[in-house]
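re: ur question from earlier - yeah i can do the single chain one, its not a big deal. heres the input i used so u can compare w yours
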Amino acid sequence: MLLTASLVFQGLAILLLGRIAWTDFTTQRISNYHVLLLLCLGLGTLQFQSLQSHSWLEMGMSAFGGVALFIALFPFWLLRKVGAGDVKLMSVTPFLVGGSNLAVFSVLLLIFAIATAAVIKNPFVLPAGIFRQYVQHMDQDGVVPFGVPISAATICAIAFQMYHALVVATSSGILEQLN
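and the output i got, formated as C-alpha coordinates:
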Protein backbone atom coordinates (compact mmCIF):
# COMPACT_ATOMS: atom_id res chain seq x y z
CA MET A 1 0.00 0.00 0.00
CA LEU A 2 2.80 2.43 0.91
CA LEU A 3 4.71 1.50 -2.25
CA THR A 4 1.65 2.18 -4.41
CA ALA A 5 1.02 5.56 -2.78
CA SER A 6 4.67 6.49 -3.18
CA LEU A 7 4.62 5.55 -6.87
CA VAL A 8 1.43 7.57 -7.43
CA PHE A 9 3.00 10.65 -5.81
CA GLN A 10 6.14 10.19 -7.91
CA GLY A 11 4.06 9.87 -11.07
CA LEU A 12 2.21 13.08 -10.24
CA ALA A 13 5.55 14.80 -9.60
CA ILE A 14 6.79 13.70 -13.03
CA LEU A 15 3.69 15.18 -14.69
CA LEU A 16 4.08 18.44 -12.76
CA LEU A 17 7.78 18.64 -13.63
CA GLY A 18 6.90 18.26 -17.31
CA ARG A 19 4.49 21.17 -16.99
CA ILE A 20 7.11 23.26 -15.17
CA ALA A 21 9.66 22.53 -17.90
CA TRP A 22 7.26 23.58 -20.65
CA THR A 23 6.16 26.72 -18.79
CA ASP A 24 9.76 27.70 -18.08
CA PHE A 25 10.69 27.11 -21.72
CA THR A 26 7.83 29.22 -23.05
CA THR A 27 7.62 32.01 -20.45
CA GLN A 28 10.88 31.85 -18.42
CA ARG A 29 8.77 31.66 -15.26
CA ILE A 30 8.42 28.99 -12.59
CA SER A 31 5.32 29.41 -10.47
CA ASN A 32 5.56 29.38 -6.67
CA TYR A 33 2.36 27.33 -6.70
CA HIS A 34 4.01 24.60 -8.79
CA VAL A 35 7.11 24.56 -6.59
CA LEU A 36 4.94 24.29 -3.48
CA LEU A 37 2.99 21.41 -5.03
CA LEU A 38 6.28 19.67 -5.83
CA LEU A 39 7.43 20.15 -2.26
CA CYS A 40 4.22 18.58 -0.96
CA LEU A 41 4.52 15.65 -3.37
CA GLY A 42 8.17 15.17 -2.42
CA LEU A 43 7.43 15.28 1.31
CA GLY A 44 4.56 12.84 0.84
CA THR A 45 6.76 10.45 -1.12
CA LEU A 46 9.51 10.66 1.49
CA GLN A 47 6.93 10.10 4.24
CA PHE A 48 5.68 6.90 2.57
CA GLN A 49 9.24 5.69 1.98
CA SER A 50 10.22 6.46 5.58
CA LEU A 51 7.24 4.54 6.92
CA GLN A 52 8.10 1.63 4.65
CA SER A 53 11.78 1.52 5.61
CA HIS A 54 11.27 2.52 9.28
CA SER A 55 14.01 5.14 8.96
CA TRP A 56 13.86 8.91 8.79
CA LEU A 57 17.42 9.30 7.55
CA GLU A 58 16.32 9.85 3.95
CA MET A 59 14.06 12.75 4.96
CA GLY A 60 16.85 14.33 7.01
CA MET A 61 19.34 14.04 4.14
CA SER A 62 16.78 15.57 1.77
CA ALA A 63 16.10 18.49 4.10
CA PHE A 64 19.83 19.12 4.50
CA GLY A 65 20.32 18.93 0.73
CA GLY A 66 17.46 21.34 0.06
CA VAL A 67 18.74 23.91 2.56
CA ALA A 68 22.31 23.55 1.28
CA LEU A 69 21.21 24.08 -2.33
CA PHE A 70 19.15 27.13 -1.39
CA ILE A 71 22.07 28.67 0.53
CA ALA A 72 24.51 27.88 -2.28
CA LEU A 73 22.30 29.27 -5.08
CA PHE A 74 20.86 32.31 -3.31
CA PRO A 75 23.95 34.50 -3.97
CA PHE A 76 23.67 33.67 -7.68
CA TRP A 77 20.09 34.92 -7.62
CA LEU A 78 21.24 38.12 -5.92
CA LEU A 79 23.79 38.59 -8.71
CA ARG A 80 21.02 37.94 -11.29
CA LYS A 81 22.84 34.91 -12.71
CA VAL A 82 19.98 32.50 -11.90
CA GLY A 83 16.26 33.12 -11.62
CA ALA A 84 14.39 32.87 -8.34
CA GLY A 85 12.22 30.06 -9.69
CA ASP A 86 15.31 28.05 -10.60
CA VAL A 87 16.69 28.46 -7.06
CA LYS A 88 13.40 27.34 -5.52
CA LEU A 89 13.07 24.41 -7.91
CA MET A 90 16.61 23.25 -7.15
CA SER A 91 15.89 23.56 -3.42
CA VAL A 92 12.84 21.32 -3.71
CA THR A 93 14.59 18.70 -5.87
CA PRO A 94 16.22 16.78 -2.96
CA PHE A 95 12.75 16.15 -1.54
CA LEU A 96 11.67 14.65 -4.87
CA VAL A 97 14.68 12.43 -5.57
CA GLY A 98 15.67 11.68 -1.98
CA GLY A 99 18.99 12.27 -0.31
CA SER A 100 20.47 8.97 -1.43
CA ASN A 101 19.77 9.71 -5.12
CA LEU A 102 21.32 13.18 -5.19
CA ALA A 103 24.47 11.84 -6.87
CA VAL A 104 22.40 10.34 -9.70
CA PHE A 105 20.49 13.61 -10.00
CA SER A 106 23.74 15.61 -10.09
CA VAL A 107 25.17 13.56 -12.95
CA LEU A 108 21.91 13.80 -14.88
CA LEU A 109 21.74 17.55 -14.27
CA LEU A 110 25.26 17.96 -15.59
CA ILE A 111 24.37 16.01 -18.75
CA PHE A 112 21.16 17.96 -19.35
CA ALA A 113 22.84 21.32 -18.60
CA ILE A 114 25.59 20.57 -21.13
CA ALA A 115 22.94 19.55 -23.67
CA THR A 116 21.00 22.75 -23.00
CA ALA A 117 24.15 24.86 -23.40
CA ALA A 118 24.88 23.07 -26.68
CA VAL A 119 21.36 23.79 -27.95
CA ILE A 120 21.59 27.44 -26.87
CA LYS A 121 24.91 27.81 -28.71
CA ASN A 122 23.68 25.96 -31.81
CA PRO A 123 19.86 25.92 -32.01
CA PHE A 124 19.96 24.64 -35.59
CA VAL A 125 20.42 21.07 -34.28
CA LEU A 126 16.78 21.12 -33.18
CA PRO A 127 14.02 19.76 -35.43
CA ALA A 128 12.20 22.46 -37.42
CA GLY A 129 9.05 22.61 -35.23
CA ILE A 130 10.96 22.83 -31.98
CA PHE A 131 13.36 25.35 -33.53
CA ARG A 132 10.40 27.62 -34.34
CA GLN A 133 9.16 27.31 -30.75
CA TYR A 134 12.67 28.05 -29.50
CA VAL A 135 13.03 31.17 -31.64
CA GLN A 136 9.52 32.32 -30.75
CA HIS A 137 9.98 31.98 -26.99
CA MET A 138 13.65 32.76 -26.50
CA ASP A 139 14.13 36.03 -24.68
CA GLN A 140 16.05 38.81 -26.46
CA ASP A 141 18.60 38.80 -23.65
CA GLY A 142 19.34 35.14 -24.24
CA VAL A 143 17.92 33.98 -20.90
CA VAL A 144 18.44 30.25 -20.55
CA PRO A 145 15.40 28.41 -19.15
CA PHE A 146 17.38 26.44 -16.56
CA GLY A 147 14.18 24.89 -15.22
CA VAL A 148 14.12 22.64 -18.28
CA PRO A 149 17.35 20.71 -17.50
CA ILE A 150 16.49 20.70 -13.78
CA SER A 151 13.09 19.18 -14.54
CA ALA A 152 14.51 16.70 -17.06
CA ALA A 153 17.18 15.50 -14.61
CA THR A 154 14.62 15.23 -11.82
CA ILE A 155 12.21 13.29 -14.03
CA CYS A 156 14.96 10.82 -14.97
CA ALA A 157 16.09 10.45 -11.34
CA ILE A 158 12.51 9.81 -10.19
CA ALA A 159 11.95 7.33 -13.03
CA PHE A 160 15.13 5.51 -12.01
CA GLN A 161 13.92 5.45 -8.41
CA MET A 162 10.49 4.14 -9.46
CA TYR A 163 12.09 1.43 -11.60
CA HIS A 164 14.32 0.40 -8.71
CA ALA A 165 11.37 0.26 -6.30
CA LEU A 166 9.38 -1.91 -8.71
CA VAL A 167 12.32 -4.26 -9.30
CA VAL A 168 12.83 -4.68 -5.56
CA ALA A 169 9.10 -5.20 -5.03
CA THR A 170 8.83 -7.86 -7.75
CA SER A 171 12.01 -9.68 -6.78
CA SER A 172 11.11 -9.81 -3.08
CA GLY A 173 7.65 -11.22 -3.74
CA ILE A 174 5.77 -8.26 -2.30
CA LEU A 175 3.59 -7.91 -5.38
CA GLU A 176 2.74 -11.62 -5.30
CA GLN A 177 1.68 -11.31 -1.67
CA LEU A 178 -0.61 -8.39 -2.53
CA ASN A 179 -2.39 -10.46 -5.18
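The chain has eight helices and no strands. not sure if urs matches, ping me
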